[in-house]
Amino acid sequence: MRSEAIHAALKAATWAPSVHNSQPWTFAVAGEEICVRADADRKLRVGDHAGREMLIGCGAALFNIRTVLRDRGWAPVTRILPDPDRPNLLATVRPGEAVTPDETTRLLSGEIERRRTHRAGFTTLPVPDKLIEALVRQAAAENVKLVPAGDEAALRMLAAVTQAAQGARPQDPEVRRWARPPDSPRKDGVPADSYPREPADTGFPQRDYAWGTETDQSMAATGVVAIMTTRGDSREEWIATGQALQRVLLYACAYGVSAAFHTQALELPHLREFLREELCSGAYPQMIMRLGFTFDVSRSVRRVRRPLSEVLD
């Protein structure tokens, strides 16, 4: 039934990734139409003035809704930014005609609750080139480019810029806001058991969330470094980036590959512009990530999410 599909899609939306697990979204249902809205109170106050990262997270939630509706047998009918007078209304989605879900839809839908964000090093097991090529195609399906760092010079540049950004804001107030101490009952933020107490030396610094847990330090490989870019830098393209990001993450998860995010440099306008001009051929960098294998360590971490009742009007 359509109502059951809508409920399943809303539950799936809450499992989307977001910066610091801030979960910057709310939802409403009018008849059979789902409204996806940005929760501006959860926007990063320092590093995300324009709301770019907030909309990327909401775009990931939107992709989950679309995917689950199609997996339940209904073609999603989506409108992006449907009302100029309501800037926080990012999209509406409703179940359209009956469809038979394809193999990729079923694959992606099955990974929504299994996907985990990784915050450490990877094993030395290489990610197959064919899988990277498939991930590039997945991003392109949402009109976003996924560009692997193809040479050592690009890799060194990305690592250096990320190091510089982390060094510029070592005591990031946003990290403190969203870091969860051990045994915290909160249903948002970054749990203390989801990142290592002593970060692995991958060349890409992780955020300092203050607590951390003991982890296997033998996993210190960088993995495959990639950038997501868009031709422009509009709110529509930020939402598209979120949808492409989630599509890539779910597809990667289905083949045992995890992702670690490094958005520090993209939160500093001058460093983001430097990357756009020097590394991205004028395209706008929206996400920097590392991809690799983890022996399922990240999959065993308990994830926290706000209940649907808290985010649904």
UniProtKB/TrEMBL annotation:
It comes from Nonomuraea mangrovi. The keyword Flavoprotein applies. This is Acg family FMN-binding oxidoreductase. The keyword Acetylation does not apply. Residues 112-275 form the Nitroreductase domain. Keywords: Flavoprotein, FMN, Oxidoreductase. Pfam families: Nitroreductase. The lineage of its organism: Bacteria, Bacillati, Actinomycetota, Actinomycetes, Streptosporangiales. Residues 183-200 have a biased composition (Basic and acidic residues). Residues 165-209 are annotated as: Disordered.
